[in-house]
């Protein structure tokens, strides 16, 4: 793959430079076999900035939530993220993947996760094949990222970090499933992404993250009752499976020198951005700020040095904004002491962590020359 970097100057990939987005729906990208042995064609919707003339652009492939049982590529969260990222200059794709499994136990859902991961890998290979032949989508093959919500987060993490057959439990029968890559097409092309955006997903084993692996952005509610923020179990009432959520993944990544960003949604449950727009704004800005520094040329942003030369050092908290406490009215019965708390204000022009979420990342804050795009895009 070419080594040319992506030009990020003049606010591209940070500010919405394109007002309109074109969507090509029902793009067939793989031929696969369902768990019942039937043939299935997988489709995706591809979003592109209207009027864009850049010849090679970064791509992010996104996958919806649904527990490997439900959901479609026109999921509201995926549609919103694809559209907003395309306005920045990205090519984005929301994919369908194989759903359903039986029996409804840990083995069944594990095999479903492997099939879905094969489908995401097939989507990556589809775009790399296009980049080497027709160049219809003008994607730079070196800058393909993956992301997803809940089940989509699981498969995104597996796509990046479950890269050895020995890592797959023997009881899942990987060979019968078609191996790590599956049989979705374009087998000569790599399915390795350049980075991962994990929204409320988890890994069965954090030891799959090793030095030299690709960067990861974890976005997770600290009170997620379905997929643990740290380590815990999923599958109730199925036989429990231990997994590691965004917080634990970030800790492991830091320990082995994998560049990472952790956006904690304080007090939030599972996929809160599906019901509350302010959390969707947080997901968008966290994704935007994670991806752009990994693109290359132009103003490098906070993660580029760490992405190129990761070091196993503890991450540093961003400076919080000042919080002013309002003294409540005193009851008639007498005085009540009020505790005063003062937090150090962040330097002018730097990013701040809002009250309902916090972020840690592996380098300095973003440069003040790139202001937020508007009130709606400010992290919450």
CATH superfamily: Alpha/Beta hydrolase fold, catalytic domain
Radius of gyration: 21 Å
Number of helical elements: 7
> How many strand elements?
14
Question: How many structural domains can be distinguished in the coordinates?
Answer: 1
| Helical fraction | 10-25%
CATH-level-2 architecture: 3-Layer(aba) Sandwich
CATH class: Alpha Beta
Main sheet overview: 10 strands, mixed
Q: Which structural class do you get from the secondary structure elements?
A: alpha/beta
Taking all residues together, what is the mean pLDDT? 82
What spatial order of strands do you see in the largest sheet? Answer: 2-3-5-4-6-7-8-11-14-13
Distance between the termini: 38 Å
Estimate the strand proportion: 15-25%
CATH topology grouping: Rossmann fold
**H/E series:** EEEEHEHEHHEEEEHEHEHEE
Low-confidence runs: 298-328, 333-357, 361-380
- Overall outline: globular
Region (Disordered): 346-380
Keywords: Hydrolase
Protein name: Carboxylesterase family protein
Organism: Hymenobacter taeanensis
Kindly list the characteristics that best describe this protein.
380 residues; alpha/beta; Rossmann fold; 7 helices; 14 strands; globular
Give a description of the structure.
With 380 residues, the protein is an alpha/beta fold. It has a single domain (6-320, 351-377), classed as Rossmann fold (3-Layer(aba) Sandwich), CATH 3.40.50. It has seven helices and 14 strands. It has helices at residues 76-88, 106-132, 151-161, 174-177, 246-256, 277-291, 304-308, and strands at residues 6-7, 21-33, 39-49, 57-63, 91-95, 139-149, 196-199, 216-221, 231-234, 241-244, 260-265, 296-297, 316-317, 357-361. The chain has a ten-stranded mixed sheet, sandwiched between helices. It has a two-stranded parallel ribbon with strand order 1-12. Strands 9-10 form a two-stranded antiparallel sheet. It is globular. It starts with 5 loop residues before the first strand and ends in a 19-residue tail after the last strand. 45% of the residues are buried. The model is unreliable at 298-328, 333-357 and 361-380 (pLDDT under 50). Residues 365-374 have a biased composition (Pro residues). Residues 351-363 have a biased composition (Polar residues). InterPro entries: AB_hydrolase_fold (IPR029058), BD-FAE-like_dom (IPR049492), GDXG_lipolytic_enzyme (IPR050300). This is Carboxylesterase family protein. Keywords: Hydrolase.
């Amino acid at each position: 793959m070419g080594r040319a970097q992506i030009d990020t100057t003049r606010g591209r990939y940070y500010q919405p430079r394109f007002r309109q987005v074109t969507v090509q729906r029902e793009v067939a990208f793989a031929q696969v076999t369902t768990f019942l042995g039937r043939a299935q064609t997988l489709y995706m919707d591809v979003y592109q900035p209207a009027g864009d003339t850049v010849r090679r652009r970064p791509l992010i492939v996104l996958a919806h939530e649904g527990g490997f049982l439900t959901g479609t590529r026109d999921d509201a969260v995926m549609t919103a993220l694809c559209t907003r990222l395309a306005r920045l200059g990205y090519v984005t794709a929301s994919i369908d993947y194989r759903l359903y499994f039986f029996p409804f136990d840990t083995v069944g859902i594990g095999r479903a996760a492997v099939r879905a991961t094969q489908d995401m890998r097939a989507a990556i290979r589809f775009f790399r094949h296009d980049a080497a032949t027709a160049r219809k989508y003008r994607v730079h093959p070196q800058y393909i990222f993956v992301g997803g919500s809940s089940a989509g987060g699981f498969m995104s993490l597996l796509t990046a970090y479950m890269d050895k057959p020995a890592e797959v439990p023997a009881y899942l029968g990987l060979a019968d499933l078609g191996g790590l890559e599956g049989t979705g097409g374009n087998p000569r092309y790599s399915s390795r992404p350049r980075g991962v955006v994990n929204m409320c997903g988890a890994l069965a084993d954090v030891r799959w993250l090793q030095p030299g692996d690709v960067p990861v952005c974890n976005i997770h509610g600290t009170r997620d009752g379905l997929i643990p923020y740290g380590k815990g179990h999923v599958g109730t009432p199925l036989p429990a499976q231990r997994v590691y959520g965004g917080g634990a993944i970030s800790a492991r990544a830091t320990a082995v020198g994998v560049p990472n960003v952790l956006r904690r949604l304080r007090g939030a449950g599972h996929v809160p951005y599906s019901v509350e727009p302010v959390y969707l704004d947080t997901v968008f800005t966290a994704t935007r700020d994670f991806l752009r520094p990994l693109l290359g040329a132009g103003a490098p942003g906070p993660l580029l040095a760490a992405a190129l030369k990761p070091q196993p050092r503890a991450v540093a908290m961003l400076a919080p904004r000042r919080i002013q406490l309002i003294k409540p009215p005193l009851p008639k019965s007498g005085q009540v002491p009020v505790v005063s708390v003062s937090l150090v204000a962040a330097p002018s022009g730097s990013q701040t962590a809002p009250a309902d979420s916090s972020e840690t990342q592996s380098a300095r804050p973003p440069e003040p020359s790139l202001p937020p795009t508007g009130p709606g895009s400010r992290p919450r």
